[in-house]
Amino acid sequence: MSDIIQLLPDHVANQIAAGEVVQRPASVVKELLENSIDAGATHVSLIIKEAGKTLIQVVDNGKGMSVTDARLSFERHATSKIKTADDLFALATKGFRGEALASIAAIAHVEQKTKQENQDLGTHIKIEGSEVIFQEPCATPKGTAIWVKNLFYNVPARRNFLKSNGVELRHIIDEFHRVAMVHCNVHFEFYSNGSEVLNLPVSNKRQRLVHIFGGKTNEKLVPVTEETELVNVTGFVGKPGHAKKTRGEQFFFVNDRFVKSPYLHHAVTSAFEGLLKDKSYPSYYLYLAVDPKSIDINIHPTKTEVKFDNEQALYAIIRATVKHSLGQFNIAPVLDFQRDASMDLPYEQAKRPISTPKIEVDRDFNPFATEFKKETPNLIDYSNKKIKNNTTTFVSNFKAKKTDDWQALYSGLNTKVTDAPSEETSKLEFESAVNTVQLFDKASAEAEKTQTVYQLQRKYLVTTIKSGLVVVHQNRAHQRVLYEEFRKQISLSNAVSQQLLFPLELTFSVTEIALLKSLEKHLEHAGFNFNGFTDEGVSIQGIPTVITESEVSIILEQLIADMEQEVPDTGFSQIDVMAKSLAKSAAVKTGVVLENEAQKHMVNQLFACEEPNRAPNGKTTFITLGVDELDKKF
Ligand code: ADP
Ligand code: MG
Known about the structure:
alpha+beta, Heat Shock Protein 90, Ribosomal Protein S5, domain 2, Ribosomal Protein S8, Chain: A, domain 1, eight-stranded mixed beta sheet, elongated, binds adenosine-5'-diphosphate, binds magnesium ion
């Protein structure tokens, strides 16, 4: 049989290698920025168009390349950074594989102009799909400028696989941040579609972080420093009070390279143990310097994973260091997250002897009786859920007041919710504090006449239909209701908004503000009223009726996170993602006690929906249990 093994032509090999190195425009950005840093540049500009899909340009003032090097730089395994295998273990540069430019040139239209300090003329080289179109002398300043156009033009499958511009831009911004956060001695500029996204002058680390993440960052940073034989740790952690409700700003750099390490991440979060509110994420920006011989950063082609020789010791050091910093900077005493400065003792008062306050309780006061009569134009207002959620307070009040009235509260409840209310069960006391205050006293009288709904475990609403029982998942049902409302409002702009007494000033990063601005119209349709935007802040005058003022920042944070995850470009699906996000944030959660009226309203609203069966995330909102099924169980 004849020989069948062939050597792949170079351009094919390069395309295959490109698959590893270049996943998306952001990978190109990372490689080009790193090359500029390696070339000793002190000024680097990144210019992109259409999230890098049509153009990625990087201009630096680094050391440039000779005529021969300019050509060689596009060859595979062409690198100036290692000469022997030993060099691999003492790397001080970002690149070393000599693959990046060759890979990029295999799948894009590339042009490069480069000149070294001592040369009169530079070199202009153009390559398309690994093929050199021309190389000629040119006038160009010292340094290198490279244009990468029409990425994946010859690999349609990869091009089609790219996400929307919003998503790809987010990836680019992330890569840009990761490089800029380390190299504070380099002036970076970043333009997207002709407008400036970031301009970062040479500064110290702290200022750099503030420039990138916004003015409010400064006050939240706690410095971290520790020198040990194994590792030097520097950087910052965010104060626990500033922890984000969504994925925080979490960065590890090892020897100036951004890395992901779930193990070390755990070390940091465990140092925050007990200091964070539920479901909030600490920010950290930690720079580790270790002996290059003690790590292997080469285990992943995009080089964000790292393997340490002495992982356990590193874990212990990082955990202790972060803990120490948090303690040293006196974070512990201000751990009351809800702390309201107006509750602090005025200065003169602080010196007076402290006496036990007398508490007077208006035992007849019922906070819900009036609350719920509030007008709710479009959507039912569950905004008093906050108060009712605080069952411990109110239940203990009620326990103190032992009257027959109180016992009547529980009439109608039974361990089997399916049972109709009866005299015998009316005296039943539940050990859980689930009972909605003053819930059934009126309802029991009208129970026969009207529809009865029970809340089960602060999670389900149970009601009857002709054929049996319906059990509604309160959170998912409410998500469905709000989702349909928000979707309608955003498309038709008919939301009613509640005006705030004082405008709410919120701060976000520059890129987050840009995203919010792009959603401004939609958000206004949903019921938000904006006074104006600054680079890092937004002033809000009105909010949708279904949310409370204290929720606004969490809801917007969540919205930004959701939109960044999957910003579809088309208006329609953008509305959909927004409506989903807002509905999810604003919906009554599991664990919230609902007053009977609210329960009924929720059930009715659900069944008035276009698609009552499913929550916006596709999960079941209710189940039915027919009498025949019940019969089977008896
Ligand atoms: P690597 O960075 O792994 O060496 P690359 O393919 O990214 O491989 O680059 C190949 C070579 O081209 C580099 O080793 C470097 O010598 C040269 N080079 C690339 N970009 C620049 C630049 N912006 N300035 C100067 N030299 C560069
Ligand atoms: Mg490189």
